[in-house]
Amino acid sequence: MSEDPSLTRALARLHKHSTPKELRAVYETHTSVTVTRLAAATGRSNGWVSKQLHRADTRMRPRGYRKRTPATPIAPPVLGPSPTVLRHRLSQRLAELRNHAGLNQTEAADLVGVSPATVMRAENPQESPTKHLLRTLCTCYEAPPQVCDELLQLWKDSRAPAWWTRQDLRVFGSRQTELGLRADARRVHGWSDRLVPELVQTAAYAHTIEAARGTEEPAEMAVAVLMAAQRRVRRRGIDQRYVLDEAVIRRRVGGAQVMDEQLTVLRTLAERGRIRVLTWDSGHCIPESPFELCSIPPLDETALCFPPFGKVYLGEPPPSAHPLSFFQNTMANLWERAQGPEATVALIENARTQLSGAGTVSTSTFTT
């Protein structure tokens, strides 16, 4: 079997003075790469490469690990809710049971014999209660046996590896919650005045943005995760609808080829009625920042996401922000005032013509 061309190119870019971050990106993106191969590509020893990988906080594979190609095709994975969604559902159910019992968190803590902070953490989707605490809370709330069994199964399923982990991908920090909710939505409607929405970006467009951000997360890994999320979204067949400011299709991100590929994707989506462009002369006052409204059926909630800032609110935002209804009404007005499919396709084609001869733009002009 011939080697993956992308792996060959990645190894060829390594050299004697490659940074720990560059080595980590190749190692974590390509699961067939070993420390020995990285040592050969850099002209260094295995010990030096291992030291650099550990310095970069790399998730190391066990010694002797080798990714095996199955002899028979594997059935496509069941696209059930992600552990992120299940943890939110578990926290919801615990809060519902406590409220039904007529208790606040402090009163529940006193009855169970734990601190209020422990009950608060149990109802926090970022945390996870122990199995013993979950059983104790169910008893305290006088939950029926079938409800207790339901929550225990939910607790067990919520501890399973995330879909990106099963694909040997790594998601950093708070990005796990944001990605876990957005990729499991049944409907995503959004507005963007800066960049193409992440769930419809091409790999080259996304790589240009990630490389410009200069974060701890390797650009190659971030792009691989995003492409996996897009595949999950397509398999789930979610309802995607985006309104883009005209600046999005006319802003040069990367070179001419990068933009041509991205605009081709946008044109296809426009023809399907999933993308509309709000022109500069529409006279409509645009929102302060890009946002997405994600409907998540298992939670019976709408998540409000702000992709540029990595923030996500399930249900109503904090009192300091606009209510959820404000963003829902804003999205409806934007969709109404934006150009229809034919006019949007014409605008995208016009942008392709104007940008076809453009060179690469400095990424510092669009970093968030």
Automatic annotation (TrEMBL):
SUPFAM superfamilies: lambda repressor-like DNA-binding domains. Transmembrane segments: none annotated. SMART domains: HTH_XRE (SM00530). It comes from the Bacteria. Residues 94-148 form the HTH cro/C1-type domain. This is Helix-turn-helix transcriptional regulator.
